[in-house]
Amino acid sequence: MEFNYQINEKPGYCAVKLEGNLIEKGQAVSLIDDVQHLVLKDTTRFVLNLTDFRYMNSTGLTVLLNILTLARKSGGEVVICHIPEQINSLLTVTKLNSIFTVKETEAEAAGSFA
């Protein structure tokens, strides 16, 4: 399964839905470019919805960290929600679950910005 994403600007934050497998840096170039563009437009709060995200390796972790860095450098935040068990295990093993804010649903994630 290829990597895809959808970005939806919502009041107060931007929802980014990740889908498929992220295993090569080239797969996420447009995602990082889109996030950079949003940050330049003062959108600095992001909810990453991983409902349909199936697999990632260290490249995928780097992409998530890049998004977090872009947001935080601009005074924003990234919250991850709907994490599949396999991805959650990877975040736990790498201790990244302590760096990211993690919520069960997008509504809870959006509410954490208040």
What's the arrangement of secondary structure elements?
Layout: E1 4-10, E2 13-22, H1 29-40, E3 45-56, H2 58-73, E4 77-81, H3 85-93, E5 101-103, H4 106-111
Parallel strand pairs: 2-3, 3-4, 4-5
Antiparallel strand pairs: 1-2
Helix pairs in contact: 1-2
N- and C-termini, Cα separation: 36 Å
CATH class label: Alpha Beta
Structural class: alpha/beta
Q: What's the gyration radius in Å?
A: 13 Å
Strand line-up of the largest beta sheet: 1-2-3-4-5
Order of H and E elements: EEHEHEHEH
Largest sheet: 5 strands, mixed
The overall number of domains is 1
Residue windows where pLDDT falls under 50 for at least 5 positions: none
What is the name of the CATH topology? Transcription Regulator spoIIAA
Give the total of beta strands: 5
Number of helices: 4
Strand content is 25-35%
Mean pLDDT comes to: 95
Helix content: 25-40%
The global form is: globular
CATH superfamily: STAS domain
- What is the CATH architecture annotation? 2-Layer Sandwich
